[in-house]
Structures are given as C-alpha cells and as structure tokens.
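Retry 2 of 3 after timeout on previous attempt. Resubmitting structure tokens to design endpoint.
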C-alpha cells in the first residue's frame, strides 16, 4: 500500500468493517515509536455549523431555539 501525494491511504474494507469505521467516522492519529495508530475519536468534534445542521434536521442535542439559531445565522 502506498501513500498518495496528498498523504492519503485507503484502509482496507475488512479492517474498516472489523472496527466499525464507517463513512464520516471521526478518527484520531497518534505516534508510537515509528508506527502510527488510528483510533476512533473518543468524542467527535462538531463545529457550530454542524450543530446547526443537526438541529435543523431534528437530530441536534443542543438547546437552541429556532429564534436563537436565526440570530446566530444572521449575526
């Protein structure tokens, strides 16, 4: 397996399925000696934009009202 010029590699599907790395899964990298470990992020980091999208789709966990969201979006 080779790293592309953009620093990308493909994780084989067998490994992705075994550890549950689905599309859009957040991962973290750590260096251990001369090896790199990829693990699922312990807590996905969501930007304010993602929080707003999730809220408008009915999946948000925030407590913002529609009026508060509109105020944030409009400045």
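Retry 2 succeeded. Sequence:
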């Amino acid at each position: 397996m080779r790293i592309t010029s953009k620093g990308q590699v493909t994780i084989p599907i067998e490994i992705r399925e075994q550890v549950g790395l689905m599309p859009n899964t957040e991962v973290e990298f750590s260096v251990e000696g001369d090896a790199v470990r990829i693990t699922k992020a312990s807590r996905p980091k969501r930007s304010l934009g993602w929080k707003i999208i999730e809220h408008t789709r009915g999946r948000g966990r925030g407590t913002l009202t529609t009026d508060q969201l509109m105020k944030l979006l409009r400045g």
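Attempt log closed. The first strand starts at residue 27 and ends at 32.
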